[in-house]
TrEMBL record:
Cell compartment(s), UniProt: Membrane
Transmembrane residue ranges: 12-29, 59-79
This protein's name: Major intrinsic protein
Organism: Nocardia rhizosphaerihabitans
One Pfam family hit: MIP
Lineage, opening ranks: Bacteria, Bacillati, Actinomycetota, Actinomycetes, Mycobacteriales
Length: 100
């Protein structure tokens, strides 16, 4: 999503688009959007509807690593010629800080 927005000149929408995606994944999928192995480990200790059983963590983490690899392969396949340019455009520069 971020690369597509950067490539189409709408990189400034990346933060909102990612936030909307994560919010929708949390509320509208059974996995509540587990995408980060550190969060998966943390949710082992949660007693909420988003918590997971400790025995399920290895499967979630394996799926996250596989998903990251497939996502990277998809980015390379779709943006072969412009991946570096899209990556540069995906980073929205911060305003210069006056703090010292």
């Amino acid at each position: 999503m971020i690369f597509a927005l950067a490539r189409s000149g709408r990189a400034a929408l990346s933060a909102s688009a990612v936030a909307a995606y994560i919010g929708a994944a949390y509320w509208f999928t059974s996995s509540t959007g587990f995408a980060n192995p550190a969060v998966t480990i943390g949710r082992i200790f949660s007693d909420t509807f988003a918590g997971i059983a400790p025995g399920s963590a290895p499967g979630f983490i394996a799926a996250q690593i596989l998903g990251a690899a497939l996502g990277l392969a998809l980015i390379v396949a779709l943006y072969r010629r412009s991946a570096a340019d899209a990556a540069d455009n995906a980073v929205v520069p911060r305003a210069a800080s006056s703090h010292h």
